[in-house]
């Protein structure tokens, strides 16, 4: 195992329009940023809503959802190879889903 990272997400900040109903479940894409420095609370991980390539290119702002910390690592973490992921033709947003937030 490369690392264990724990974090808390502020569910009130979830953009429900980005919740996607997929074939195997309901998904919300997030991005975790691991920092070299630790903040005053011992956190070195930030979690934000995932942005599509188009959103990044248009300059959309990152919506931070929470933070956390790396709690263990084997010191050998490497970047995963980028794979061309096939996106569902038109994954319907799960606006009508009954979420507790």
Describe the structure.
This protein is mainly beta and 101 residues long. It has one domain (3-73). Helix content is 5%, strand content 31%. It is built from 1 helix and 6 strands; from the N terminus they run E-E-E-E-E-H-E. The protein has one helix spanning 53-57, and strands at residues 3-9, 20-21, 26-27, 30-34, 45-49, 64-73. A 4-stranded antiparallel β-sheet has the order 1-6-5-4, with no helix packed on it. Strand 2 (20-21) and strand 3 form a beta hairpin. The chain is globular, with a radius of gyration of 16 Å. The N and C termini lie far apart (32 Å). The mean pLDDT is 84.
CA distance, first residue to last residue: 32 Å
- Total strands: the figure is 6
Largest sheet properties: 4 strands, antiparallel
* Coarse morphology: globular
Radius of gyration: 16 Å
| Tally of individual helices | 1
Summarize the structure.
This protein has 101 residues and is mainly beta.
Helix/strand layout:
Elements: E1 3-9, E2 20-21, E3 26-27, E4 30-34, E5 45-49, H1 53-57, E6 64-73
List keywords for this structure.
1 helix; 101 residues; two-stranded antiparallel sheet
């Amino acid at each position: 195992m490369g690392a264990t990272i724990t974090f808390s997400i502020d569910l009130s900040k979830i953009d429900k329009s980005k919740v996607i109903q997929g074939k195997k479940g309901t998904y919300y894409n997030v991005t975790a940023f691991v920092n070299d420095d630790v903040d005053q609370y011992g956190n070195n991980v930030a979690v934000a809503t995932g942005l599509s390539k188009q959103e990044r290119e248009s300059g959309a702002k990152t919506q931070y959802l929470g933070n956390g910390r790396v709690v263990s690592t084997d010191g050998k973490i490497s970047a995963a190879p980028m794979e061309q992921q096939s996106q569902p033709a038109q994954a319907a947003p799960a606006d009508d889903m009954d979420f507790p937030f």
